[in-house]
Every structure is written in structure tokens, then in C-alpha cells.
Write a structure and sequence with these properties.
Layout (H helix, E strand, L loop, with lengths): L2 E6 L5 E5 L2 E12 L6 H5 L18 E11 L3 E9 L14 E12 L22 E15 L13 E2 L3 E3 L2 E3 L4 E14 L2 E12 L6 E4 L1 E2 L1 E4 L2 E7 L12 E2 L17 E4 L4 E2 L8
Parallel strand pairs: 8-19
Antiparallel strand pairs: 1-3, 2-3, 3-5, 4-5, 6-7, 7-12, 9-10, 11-12, 13-18, 14-17, 15-16
Length: 281
């Protein structure tokens, strides 16, 4: 009981170029002497193209589909292989190049500093309450990659910011400007006997980084006579301020506060991880 590969059918060759995407068709004749042989057995013959194999004339077109038809029951079979240059494939799915897309998302944030770094206050020098809101757009990069299993880093990179400079899709990303925003893992799939999962992770990019700048202000200050103590701030008339008073960055009251000399304290709030070790290509 044998499946025999006879030949490629010369009249089954076709090709098309549509807006630069090249597609091809090839057909093959096989016969079997076993009535129980079906499409799976026929389509698995070693002489047929494999999904992800390249076209013999166009090395930038890859086999994406095999169609198996029984045209002379029970023995005669025709297998049609369809190729496309639309996206690179590999016979081994984990060798497929990453699929990378770019987008933007729009958020809002309170306006505390202007674009020069000065505090945003009213004509009397007080901060607006509530602060005005402004647009905070972010660039979004999504990377889709076939992996053999759920990645071991999936939890470790939760809300992580890049500790290193890395490159994605030819673009260099500076330290501290990318944050892991979302990771999704698809169900197990199989191609040519290799089991894999499609993993997609999304990074948000912030031009000014992911540290938090918070105005140094409050209702208490460090006691000048004892740095271990905090004392309430009082105004010249002995009353307590009704809004937080500006501090000097060292726990003292800021003298002659202005929008230009207001102090903002910078906090690193997200853990950092090396992004260059991620599957980015």
C-alpha cells in the first residue's frame, strides 16, 4: 500500500502580481493503491511543498496553503500549492520574522509644568485647583512573534520600563522611554509538526520617559533646629496656609517662590528590565 508522487502538472502553474503582492499556484499529481488514504495522508507526502517553503522561481514568495482533491476516486489525487509574497514564512514557525505595527493612543494628564519646565500657576502664583488637563499621546509598538511556549518573562516584565537602549523595526529606543503595556498569548498551534504559540506584546513609548515629576509642596517642613522633626508651616500672620506651600527640594520652605524656581521631585516608579533580550525580530 503506497502513495506515489507522479509529477508536477505543467498546466497547473499560475501567477499574479496585484499591487506588488505576487501569488502563484502549482499543482501535483499523486496516486495511491489504498482506498483508505485520504487528504491528510496524500497532503503529507514528502515530495510536496511544505507550508513556509519558498517558490522555486521566486525566493520571496512562500507556500501558504495546500489543497488536496481526489479527482479520480479512489486512486488519483491533485494537490494545489498556493504561494504569496505578502509576508515571509518559514517551514519552522518560530523562525518567522516578527510582525511589527505602530500606532498611537491618546490620554489626558494634569498640567503642572509647561514645556519649559516652569510650574503652571495663576497670576497670584497659586496652582490651579483642579489642574487643567492636556493631551498626552503615546506611540504604541506591537510585536507579534511565534514562540514555542508561553514566554518565561511574561510576569517579570509586567509594567517594566527599558533599562537599555534597544532597536525595534529599525528605530532606536532610548533608555527609560518604553514601557511594557500588554502581553497576549494565543492558543497552541502546529505547523509542519512544530507546536507554537503566537505571542503579541505591546509597548508604549514616552518621549520624556516614565519617571514621575511631582511638585515639592506641602503643609509641613523640616525643623531647621532638628532635621528629624517635621513642623507645620505657618504664614507671616501665624495662620496655616490653605494650599500646599512650595518647598525647596530639601524639606525647607521655598523663598520667593516663582513658576521658574518651583522644585519638582523625580521618582522612578516602574521596575526596569532589558528590552533588547525580547524577541523583536
Amino acid at each position: 500500500m503506497t502513495i506515489t508522487f507522479k509529477n508536477e502538472i505543467p498546466g497547473g502553474r499560475q501567477g499574479k502580481n496585484s499591487l506588488g503582492i505576487r501569488t502563484y499556484q502549482r499543482q501535483f499529481r499523486l496516486i495511491t493503491d489504498n482506498k483508505n488514504d485520504g487528504p491528510y495522508a496524500i497532503g503529507s507526502h514528502a515530495s510536496l511543498p511544505r507550508i513556509g517553503s519558498v517558490h522555486p522561481e521566486d525566493a520571496s514568495a512562500w507556500c501558504r496553503e495546500l489543497t488536496v482533491e481526489n479527482d479520480a476516486p479512489f486512486a488519483g489525487w491533485v494537490v494545489t500549492a498556493n504561494y504569496s509574497s505578502e509576508r515571509e514564512l518559514s517551514e519552522t514557525p518560530t523562525s518567522d520574522p516578527a510582525v511589527i505595527t505602530w500606532d498611537s493612543e491618546q490620554f489626558q494628564r494634569p498640567l503642572i509644568q509647561d514645556n519649559t519646565g516652569d510650574a503652571v500657576v495663576n497670576s497670584a502664583g497659586d496652582f490651579f485647583d483642579p489642574p487643567p488637563m492636556i493631551d498626552d499621546s503615546r506611540r504604541v509598538v506591537s510585536v507579534q512573534k511565534n514562540l514555542t511556549a508561553v514566554p518565561t518573562w511574561i510576569l517579570d516584565y509586567q509594567d517594566a520600563v527599558n533599562s537599555d537602549q534597544f532597536t525595534v523595526d529599525g528605530v532606536t529606543i532610548a533608555i527609560g522611554t518604553a514601557k511594557m503595556q500588554r502581553v497576549s498569548v494565543g492558543q497552541e498551534d502546529i505547523r509542519n509538526g512544530t507546536t507554537f504559540r503566537q505571542v503579541t506584546f505591546t509597548m508604549h513609548l514616552q518621549r520624556d520617559g516614565w519617571t514621575m515629576d511631582i511638585l515639592d509642596a506641602g503643609f509641613r517642613r523640616i525643623d531647621p533646629g532638628d532635621s528629624t522633626k517635621r513642623i507645620a508651616i505657618s504664614l507671616d500672620d501665624g495662620t496655616e496656609p490653605t494650599t500646599p506651600a512650595l518647598l525647596d527640594g530639601s524639606g525647607g520652605l521655598l523663598s520667593n517662590p516663582t513658576p521658574a524656581n518651583a522644585v519638582f521631585k523625580t521618582f522612578s516608579v516602574y521596575k526596569t528590565r532589558a528590552f533588547s533580550s525580547l524577541p523583536l525580530s
